[in-house]
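Can't attach files on this board, so I'm pasting raw text. These are the components:
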Amino acid sequence: MRKVTVYITLKQGVLDPQGKAIQESLNSLGYNEIEDARVGKYIELKVEDGPALEARVTEMCDKLLANPVIEDYRFDVEEAWGL
Amino acid sequence: MRKVTVYITLKQGVLDPQGKAIQESLNSLGYNEIEDARVGKYIELKVEDGPALEARVTEMCDKLLANPVIEDYRFDVEEAWGL
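---
Top answer:
Structure tokens for the assembled complex are below.
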């Protein structure tokens, strides 16, 4: 069993209202050192090991997990689940 | 300027309907090797460097970014923004 961690972020230049709201909230709480905030998704997958693991995870990202129009993704395959 | 990446995940044992939906969708697309999926938030902060940077980011997570009842968080402080 492998652990795959997928990171999905908005492409550069795509407006991030959620990030903007976080930045403004932090500034209003007195954390003026925060200049920008970008929010993305972080998905941990528990995957049965297999020969074409990386190719299939790429397919999963392209087909379902990320929106190719506005999002970029990358993923890490870790040795084993739970370590 | 520093880049701080915050990872926010649901605590173990907290139901993750979004993760469940992703797992079932991937299985229905034929990716039966997916046994579990957990979804979290991933926030990139652009932060003016300062003496108590880590302590203040911890405060930001406790006060705003993470819900301490159902979420865990960790963060990485990177050398400089944009590298």
